[in-house]
Amino acid sequence: MTDKTVHASAVLVGARAVLIRGPSGAGKSRLVLDLLDAARDGRLRFARLVGDDRVHLESANGRLLVRPAQPLAGLIELRGVGLLRRDYEPCALVGLVVDLDAVDAERLPDRQTIELNGIDVPRLAVASGATALPAVLALINSPGTAIGPQTS
């Protein structure tokens, strides 16, 4: 079992979490809030905060789990407003990594994965200045992806 705390945010979307990474000011918290709003307005079935700014990653039985850093559990920052309290999930299985301001972002990328804590996870690289939400929603709502709706 390998675990570490990382500078990232995470939101549970359906059965799996989206882990959002990027430099300070890249829009991690904004993407979390956008995904929560997408669930509220029906573009997603379900979304709940896991953690903002710092999260704890743990590999267990070939799966990557994410938990909020305890001092920040249930808190999310909205720039210009401050900290907001939201319901949160204490633990979630990571199904997608979104890297904001990624220098390797491509217009028409091949499917990517990234290894975190010895676990391969699907990855979406988002270019600096690009709006992440449409691409994230497209992946989440696409059947046959690791995070998309499960097909029977």
Give a nutshell description of this structure.
The chain has 152 residues and is mainly beta.
Explain this structure:
The protein is mainly beta. The protein has a single domain, classed as Rossmann fold (3-Layer(aba) Sandwich). It is 14% helix and 41% strand. The protein contains 2 helices and 11 strands. Strands 1, 2, 3, 4, 5, 6, 9, 10 and 11 form a 9-stranded mixed β-sheet that branches. Strands 7-8 form a two-stranded antiparallel sheet. A hairpin with a 2-residue loop joins β2 and β3. The protein is globular and about 35 Å long. The model has no long low-confidence stretch (mean pLDDT 91).
Q: Which features does this protein show?
A:
single chain; 152 residues; mainly beta; Rossmann fold; 9-stranded mixed β-sheet; 2 helices; 11 strands
What order do the helices and strands come in, and which of them pair?
Elements: E1 2-7, E2 9-13, E3 16-21, H1 28-40, E4 47-51, E5 54-60, E6 63-68, E7 75-78, E8 82-85, E9 92-99, E10 112-116, E11 119-125, H2 133-140
Give the overall average pLDDT: 91
Distance between the termini: 31 Å
- In N-to-C order, the SSE pattern is EEEHEEEEEEEEH
According to DSSP, the number of beta strands is 11
What's the helix count?
2
CATH class: Alpha Beta
Tell me, briefly, the overall form.
Answer: globular
CATH fold title: Rossmann fold
Largest sheet: 9 strands, mixed
| The number of domains | 1
| Helix proportion range | 10-25%
What proportion strand? 35-45%
Structural category is: mainly beta
Low-confidence stretches: none
Radius of gyration: 14 Å
CATH architecture: 3-Layer(aba) Sandwich
